[in-house]
Amino acid sequence: VLASHTYVVIVQDTASGIDRVEWPDELFFDWLLPAVYFLGMSAIILTPAGILSRALAEKLYPDDRALRFLVLAIPLVWFFFPIGLLSSLSGSSRWAVLSPRILLGLLRIAPTMIVFYFVTAILFVCVGALGYAGLFSPQWYVLPLSVLAMSALWMIHARLVGRLGWLIHQQSQAVKPKRKTGGKATPRKKRVKSLAGEDPWA
After folding, report:
1. Sign for the pseudo-dihedral over CA of 142, 143, 149, 150
2. 3-state secondary structure (DSSP) of residue 105
3. What is the C-alpha separation between 81 and 87, in angstroms, rounded?
4. What are the tens digits of pLDDT across the range 17-28?
5. Closest among 112, 110, 86 to 100, alpha carbons compared
6. CB of 90 closer than 8 Å to CB of 165
7. How far is CA 38 from each of CA 14, 81, 95, 194, rounded to the nearest angstrom?
8. CA 99 to chain centre
9. Tell me: the pLDDT tens digits for 72-125?
């Protein structure tokens, strides 16, 4: 609950252009709805991974169902979760996980989007390697370090997703005036000549 609340607040504040995240003064019960929303979003995005996992049960890791699901789910979450979350936050419905406006905005900032995915992929690989070493290798003492790294990755990823949302908003604001004028200069209004008058109190 706390992790989902933290992630959503960071994304929303960053997308609004706030440099420093302001934590709302809310009760713990107010965090439950964002947590349900966050879990629902994750379930929608992970649904294709579950379908592919069953379809490839005989070809991809047939003896390890959990590993097969993780191999399919992690790339899906890495690629589609930012798109789904931004689409959900910008749309009229929180359950609309694919917005044409967000897709068009991401295409306008394609170089930034490529850098985002490249950086987050490196972070995911590094943190995942630490977690694997701490859980499945004799170097168990790496596990506390991996937990700290996962917490940092959680907030860094939320900040970067929010920055993408902010850039998309800035691009849409820059395009709007051009669409209204159609690229043509608006004609100046003729200046009305003032009528001469007399001051009765002179």
Report:
1. positive
2. helix
3. 10
4. 888 877 777 666
5. 86
6. yes
7. 18, 10, 10, 63
8. 12
9. 888 888 898 899 888 888 877 777 778 888 899 999 999 999 999 999 999 988
